[in-house]
Amino acid sequence: MKTPVIAIFDVGKTNKKLFLFNEQYKIVFERSARFTETVDEDGDPCENLESLRLSVFDSLHEVFRRSEFDIKAINFAAYGASLVCVDEDGKPVAPLYNYLKPYPDNLQRKFYETYGGEEKVAYTTASPILGSLNSGMQLYRIKYEKPALFERIRCALHLPQYLSFLISGRMYSDMTSIGCHTHLWDFTANDYHEWVRREGIIDKLAPIVAGDAVFPASFPGNGYGVGVGLHDSSAALIPYLVSFHEPFVLISTGTWCISLNPFNHTPLTKAELEADCLCYMHYQGTPVKASRLFAGYEHEQQVKRIAEHFGQPTSRYRNMAYDPNLVAKLRKAVGGPAPIGGKVSAFAQRNLSDYTSYDEAYHRLMMDLVDLQQISTGLAIKGSDVKRIFVDGGFSKNTVYMNLLADAFPEMEVFAASMAQATAVGAALAIHATWNKRPLPNDLIELRFYAHANENKEQHR
To answer: Of 213, 221, 281, 354, whose Cβ has the fewest other Cβ atoms within 10 Å?
Structure first.
């Protein structure tokens, strides 16, 4: 008897993974690949599109050969701000430009002068000014720097939709990709921004379909459906939306700590945009207010500094217990630097000789990071009646972080959430109804409750 499964490609900047999930959303097969980056025409690093394309087909051939699985559907989740420009034949005509590629100042100035200034564009598109990370700006750049190339582009697809096109043969756009810091979408008008039409960019964009849309595969004789693909941050939110109906904020932690609030519908303010807030788009088309903090990256850098100073292994913090007495002592210590502009914690300026041990310095680092996290998450919460905070990713396993966060939000229920492969599961759940006859599982996410200091110590739920 074959096991009915869905195949999900989860394409990150570093790791490209294929998962097969059974009807209970348990992983029954997994394959991972890494590719060496290539360079674009300016010598800047970028994704190797050809390796990625071949890997998708190789992986699918492998799982189709396995007689124990019956593939019912395929979907994709991939990182955002990445456009694949294809010609009439669906062949890429340009590199997949890296979203960290520096953006020319003169072109950036010209754009914002034409369309009412940075503040106005940031407000209407619900995104800070981020250069190439505003993926629509990549097309604007091609139009003015490479007009011959611009003419050859039949369609510009975000990476998840390009992957879907490889299997379905159909070109579509999806709101989770368009709605995420692209500068393409006007959140105040709920339509493309005026510049997209005025610059002729609209002619290069595929029709928009719902995030749960499914199409037949382009290979004859196969009965499986192909999803349109999702932006990875939006996909990772889906298991939470499916599992919890009371308002919540999800702090997704990694290199960036992103606080996502699907229950906050207040427009972004100028101050929020300057503090790195933006809107993502829910897979069913409603805005998700979010705030970003580069805390995972800062943690990594500062842990190296602490480990070096105290002659300890970098990984020591991983098994460290939370010490409330140490925190109380550090809170009594007067003075010290203040956070720099809300983006970097005070810790970088602290003198490590002021601390007697690795543990003490580490607790101070986490206190400084959680001070910033409190401000960042507070921006996403403001204006909504959220009472719960879920934390997933690296910091959810860090008891020092979790206890300090519970103290920072005493009026909230704070949970560490653990779930294997939230992004991939989200992409599968988005098209649940088309491939899975069973009800949605209610045990997708495991929660661990952290009480703040005035309550009992840590409890479990």
So the answer is: 221
Among left, alpha and beta (phi > 0; psi -120 to 50; other), residue 169 is left
**Could you give the CA distance from residue 429 to residue 227 in angstroms, rounded to a whole number?**
11
Q: For the domain 232-461, what is the CATH code?
A: 3.30.420.40
Residue type, 186: D
Domain boundaries, the chain: 3-228, 232-461
Mean pLDDT of the chain: 92
Integer CA distances (angstroms), 120 to 136, 221, 269, in order = 16, 51, 11
Q: How far, in Å, CA of 216 to CA of 400, rounded?
A: 48
pLDDT in tens, 284-302: 778 899 998 989 999 999 9
Alpha-carbon distances of 364 from 32, 94, 145, 349, 391, rounded to whole Å: 37, 47, 48, 12, 20
Please name which of 42, 121, 133, 43 lies closest in space to residue 83, comparing C-alpha atoms: 133
Indicate yes or no: pTM above 0.70.
Answer: yes
Architecture of domain 3-228: 2-Layer Sandwich (3.30)
Tens digits of residue pLDDT in 370-400? 999 999 999 999 989 999 999 998 899 999 9
Q: What 8-state DSSP symbol labels residue 395?
A: G
d(C-alpha 152, C-alpha 89), whole Å: 11
